[in-house]
Structure formats: C-alpha cells, structure tokens
Amino acid sequence: MDSKHPRNPTRSLLLNHARRLFAERGFSAVSMRDIARSVGLQQSSIYNHFDSKQSILIELLRGHMLTLNQCRNDWLSDEVSATEQLIAFTQFHVAYHIDFPDDVFIAYMELRSLEPDNRKALVRLRDEYELSLQAIVQQGVTAGEFQCVDVAVHTRAIIAMLTGVTVWYRHDGRLDKDTVIHSYVTAALQSLGIPANDVAHQHELKKVKHV
Amino acid sequence: MDSKHPRNPTRSLLLNHARRLFAERGFSAVSMRDIARSVGLQQSSIYNHFDSKQSILIELLRGHMLTLNQCRNDWLSDEVSATEQLIAFTQFHVAYHIDFPDDVFIAYMELRSLEPDNRKALVRLRDEYELSLQAIVQQGVTAGEFQCVDVAVHTRAIIAMLTGVTVWYRHDGRLDKDTVIHSYVTAALQSLGIPANDVAHQHELKKVKHV
DNA sequence: GTCTATATCGAGATAGAC
DNA sequence: GTCTATCTCGATATAGAC
Fold first, then answer.
1. CA A100 → C1' D17, Å?
2. DSSP classification of residue A149
3. A54 touches chain B (CB under 8 A)
4. Tell me: the pLDDT tens digits for B23-72?
5. A82-97 residue pLDDT tens
6. Choosing among B148, B150, B182, which should be mutated to test the A contact, i.e. which has the most A CBs within 10 A?
C-alpha cells in the first residue's frame, strides 16, 4: 500500500503536525480529529496512513531515537582524549536538542504512553545513548582528566543539564546558538573539574575541527 | 462546606491518589473514575470535595510551588558567601526533589494543562524560585568566586542538572541519599569552576552546620 | 457525603460510497 | 485516498434518593 510508504507526502504532513501537537499538549490530550484538521483532512482519512493513534507515536519516537544515535555516531570519533570527546558530545547534544526540541520532549514524556513491548525497545535505544556518554566520563576519570564523585550520577547530571536547553531556548532570544553551545560546553567540562582556561583552549580547537 | 476543608481526610486521600496517578500517566490520561476507584469511591462523589478535575490539579500545583518556595526560604540564609549559598541551595533542592518527585514531575509537565490565568500565577512562583538561584550565581560571579559564560544559561543548566535526580533515583538503589546529594553538590560547584579540593572542604563545613 | 442514574459530549475506529 | 455516516465506548459533570 503506497499510502503507508514513509515518503508519501500526506503521511509526512500528518507526522509533522502530530509531532508538534503531541509536544504542545501531550499524547493523551491530542485527538485524531485535532491531527486531521491541522492538515485539512477528515479524521477517518488518517487511517489510510496509520493503523492507530499509538502507531503514529511509535513512529515518531523510533525515528527520533534512531536518528539521535546515528547522528551521534557520525559526529563523534573515539580516537581522541576524553576531554575532546566530551566537548564533541556536548556540542552535538545541545545542537541536536536545539534543532529538534519537539522530538526530545515527546521522547521524554510519552514513553509511558506506549505498550510495554514498544516501550522496552525504545528504552534500550535511550540507554545506549546515555551509556555512550558514561563511557566517555569513565575514560576521563580513569585517565585522571576528570574529577567526580560517581560516574553514573555525574553522567545523568550532565545529560539532564544539556537536555534542559529545550525548555527555554528560542531562536529569536537573547543568545545565538553558538554562544549557548559554548556556555554548555564550559559548564559540562568545568563540572568535571577541567579549569576554565583549558576549556576555552580545547573548545576552540574542537570548533576549528568540526564547524 | 466542611467537605471542602483542606484537612478533610477523604479529600486528602483523593489529593494524594490524584498526585500519584497524574505523575504516572499524565493529567489527561487519568479519569475521575480512576481517581475515585483508587480510594474506593464512586466517581460522582469526588464532586463533593472538588469542583472539577482541573481544580484538583490546581490545588496540587499551588501546594507544591508554595511549599517549595517556603522551604527554600527556611533553609537558606543569605549572610554567607555565594559558594556556601550554592551548597545550601543544592542540598535543599536535591533533597526536596528526592522526597517529592511526583509533585516535581507534575509541575514540570502539567502547567500546560491549566487555563491561562492559573498557569500565569504558577509560572510566577516557578520563576521566583529560579531567580533565587540566579541571584546566588550572579553574586558569585561578581565576587570572582564563580566562572561561567552566561549567568542565566548557567543557572538554568544547574537547575536542570539537579532536577534530573527525580528521573532515576530510587530509595532502594545503589546509592544512599547523602551520597547522591554530595555528588550533585560537587557537580554544581565544579561546574562554576570551584576546584574539587575546595568543594570537599566547603561541603563538609556546610554539612556540619546544617545536618 | 455517598450512592445510582443519567445527560451530554467527544474519543478511537470502521463501513462503504465515490 | 478522501469523504460521510455510524458504531461503541468512556469522558466530565449533574440530579436526586438516602
């Protein structure tokens, strides 16, 4: 059935509008009528493209999680120091979260709206992502580059700190994207005991390499 | 009407169960029947204690926000250095968030479920709390104790970092509450450029004073 | 103050014409 | 592939007996 092909334009439109609505109001508070009307269709027409409301959510969450891991792997290389890896991770994470805040918000809030099997698969992808940062932190602690009380707690602390950018960042706000990223890179590195002078130095190196 | 007095036991029971259900499934996904059945009542009996579903949410959110600000004011004194204030704030914030994760989660997620007027009043209380941390960070930067790129961004970064404890902390987990708090105090201070040795020292001082 | 019964509405999903 | 019409269910809220 061609209508269920990922590149069907009506289907893509529905996905994009559902993403925005789910992020704004929450999955349970959005009706199929809301989604249909936002793209100028009748409610029943959605079922030509998706099996159910839940299947729309699953596709949004799977797409986000897979893309996040894929982009992370493309961006990072593991042939550098833990400090350089942390800088690269932070730059990637904040930039991605600034660009796709709706996906991030839905992934954070609506995993519970999934049936158990679907939820488990997505939690695995989320854990994979978080553990990739934990490996960096552990490597830095082992090498004596980083100082922290507990690697697992500190990893979660950094992830939460960076992800919070989605709550307040606005494209027309006081600070531009690069400044915001620089702020978070400094905060993340300093949180692990890297002095501010070294931060500025390393950060600059990384920016020349990757941006 | 006595049934709507705050200390009515059935009313308190309803509030407590609604809090747990809203945190687990989200406001929109919980029905009045769910709340009533969880305390052994019929659905219509709730209306003897609350005017509407929305009024239950308002009472939970208002209670949380007022208590949070009140407890913070009781805990902190502003006659010490910015570093000492930050330690006290972090200890309070993490401890409170460990103790009342459901309130925190609902406050984060369900402000959007409120009608505009009610939402505005609560956003004001939330901002008041966040600005109290921003004042500490600003004081530390001005005094040369703290290093950061942008005070507002770094304040939000710290709040998000600390609040994240609600996502993963379990009372029967690997780490006890004091160790978790110590981890976050270290992370917060280091993020502002305070060296780890000083952190251990100051933190100990603070613990002796307050615990 | 709790109950049963009911009103009114909107939800997700399906059937079948075009 | 979209439409209209409809099914079935459960939602919030109210009325009135006890």
1. 56
2. S
3. no
4. 999 999 999 999 999 999 999 999 999 999 999 999 999 999 999 999 99
5. 999 999 999 999 999 9
6. B150
Tell me if B153 and A175 make a contact (CB, 8 A cut-off): yes
CA B147 vs. chain centroid, Å, equals 26
Mutate to test the interface with A, among B186, B189, B199, B207 (most CBs of A within 10 A): B186
Q: What are phi and psi of A26, to 5 degrees?
A: 95, 145
Per CATH, the number for A54-210 is 1.10.357.10
A11 CA: nearest nucleotide by C1': D1
Other Cβ atoms within 10 Å of B121 Cβ, number: 14
Interface of A with B in 133-152 (CB under 8 A): 147-150, 152
Q: Which CATH superfamily is domain A1-51 in?
A: Homeodomain-like (1.10.10.60)
Q: Which pair of structure tokens corresponds to residue B202? A: 């100051």
Query: How does pLDDT run across A52-81, given as a tens digit for each residue?
Result: 999 999 999 999 999 999 999 999 986 789
Per-domain boundaries in chain A: 1-51, 54-210
Cα–Cα distance between A161 and B170 in angstroms, integer?
Answer: 20
If one looks up domain B53-210 in CATH, what number appears?
1.10.357.10
